[in-house]
Structure to design on (300 residues):
């Protein structure tokens, strides 16, 4: 099959398109013909070698953690899924390729395009995982540091669907976007505590840091306690008494919940840009720059 690969850690230029062996669905897994895959920050961090001490890659590696497509192989012990079904979900074989094996999946909601479904795996699972960790539900007030990106916008929508009030930080150019989701926008940086207090005089109950921009000291002062802050992007979390969430606890359940919310209109992934597989270097470069609204998607 054709796939994007990298044979050594490095900048986006190490990516190339080549023929590689197809993966196959083992027990409890399915294989899809990939129609679209998303680019997540973890993809370029793995490719650059930033995480090789904790998540070493078996090189050559295929980038990508999530995708959407049509099932073409069903492994033993899989029920409720058949060849020909349209699904989205998570993979550990790499998804920037013609075929990928999924470890957790759900049917694509009718309300979503294939590209939106491809963008929902990592973002939806991560958002649901951290909202559960923080206990965000009806009556909660949540602050999201970095709310306009893929995970931030997913968390905002899902928290709002649960009945929470959401305040999100973003550059001013993304404020109207956050308002369209139902969140109250504010800018990040110095003076954040005062701005949050003006929007939520009674304070916030929980804080999610998606940005990883070094703001944990300020966020812990805004939160009712340090354990009311969860980050998915700042490795200094322990120094501040903050929880770092990086591992999927129950990915299948979270993917199913994301799909149900999609069907009910409570979660719609936003696509910032799409790229053909041959242009994956551009997509990784764009992701590495940051500040994208929503998700970047690769079409296969």
């Amino acid at each position: 099959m054709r796939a994007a690969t990298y044979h050594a850690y490095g900048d986006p230029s190490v990516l190339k398109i080549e023929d590689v062996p197809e993966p196959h669905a083992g027990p409890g897994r399915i294989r899809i013909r990939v129609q679209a895959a998303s680019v997540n920050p973890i993809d370029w961090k793995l490719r650059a070698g930033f995480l090789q001490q904790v998540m070493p890659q078996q090189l050559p590696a295929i980038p990508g953690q999530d995708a959407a497509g049509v099932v073409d192989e069903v492994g033993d012990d899989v029920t409720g899924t058949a060849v020909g079904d349209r699904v989205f979900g998570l993979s550990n074989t790499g998804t920037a390729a013609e075929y990928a094996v999924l470890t957790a999946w759900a049917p694509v909601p009718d309300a979503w395009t294939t590209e939106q479904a491809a963008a929902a795996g990592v973002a939806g699972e991560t958002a649901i995982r951290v909202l559960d960790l923080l206990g965000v539900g009806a009556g909660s007030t949540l602050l999201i540091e970095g709310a306009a990106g893929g995970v931030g916008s997913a968390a905002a929508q899902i928290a709002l669907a649960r009945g929470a009030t959401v305040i999100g930080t973003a550059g001013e150019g993304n404020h109207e976007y956050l308002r369209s989701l139902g969140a109250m926008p504010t800018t990040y940086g110095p003076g954040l505590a005062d701005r949050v207090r003006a929007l939520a005089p009674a304070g916030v109950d929980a804080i999610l840091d998606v940005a990883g921009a070094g703001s944990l000291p300020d966020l812990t002062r805004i939160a009712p306690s340090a354990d009311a802050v969860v980050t998915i992007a700042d490795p200094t979390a322990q120094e501040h008494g903050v929880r770092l969430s990086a591992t999927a606890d129950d990915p299948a359940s979270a993917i199913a919940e994301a799909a149900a919310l999609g069907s009910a209109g409570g979660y719609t992934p936003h696509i910032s840009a799409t790229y053909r597989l041959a242009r994956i270097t551009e997509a990784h470069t764009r992701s590495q720059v940051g500040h994208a609204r929503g998700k970047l998607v690769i079409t296969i």
